Amino acid sequence: MDKSFYVYILLTENNTLYCGYTDDVEKRFKAHQEGRGAKYTRANKPIKIVYTKEFNTKEEAQKEEYRIKHLSKEQKLKLINTK
C-alpha cells in the first residue's frame, strides 16, 4: 500500500495556529507536545489537532503546507471551519 502524507494545523496554548506536514499525524503531534517537533511548538505548546488533510504524495502535502502557511489567521480559521 502506498504511504499517505498529511497537512495538519495545531492549536497552541497561546491561541496560535501551527501548520506542518507528516506521514503520521498522531506521532508528529506527540513529538510537538514533547518539545521534539518544531522550534515554534517548543515555545508555543500545541494542545490539539484542529485540521488534517490527506495527500498521495509528499510533494502535494508540502505544496499545501506552503499555501496554508501564507494564509492569514482568519483564512486559516475559515479553512478549519469548512472541513
Which runs of at least 5 residues are low in confidence (pLDDT < 50)? none
Please indicate the count of domains: 1
Rg calculated over all Cα atoms: 12 Å
Question: Going across the major beta sheet, what is the strand order?
Answer: 2-1-3
Estimate the strand proportion: 25-35%
Order of helices and strands: EEHHEHH
Secondary structure class reads alpha+beta
Question: What is the C-level CATH assignment?
Answer: Alpha Beta
Number of helices: 4
Q: Which of globular, elongated, flat, extended, rod-shaped describes the shape?
A: globular
Overall mean confidence score, pLDDT: 95
Distance between the termini: 26 Å
Helix content: 40-55%
At the third CATH level, what is the topology name? GIY-YIG endonuclease
Within CATH, the superfamily carries the name: GIY-YIG endonuclease
> What's the architecture in CATH terms?
3-Layer(aba) Sandwich
Largest sheet: 3 strands, antiparallel
Question: Explain this structure to me?
Answer:
With 83 residues, the protein is of the alpha+beta class. It has a single domain (5-81), classed as GIY-YIG endonuclease (3-Layer(aba) Sandwich). Helix content is 42%, strand content 29%. The chain contains four helices and three strands, in the order E-E-H-H-E-H-H. Strands 2-1-3 form a three-stranded antiparallel beta sheet, sandwiched between helices. The protein is globular and about 35 Å long. The protein starts with a strand and ends with a helix. The model has no long low-confidence stretch (mean pLDDT 95).
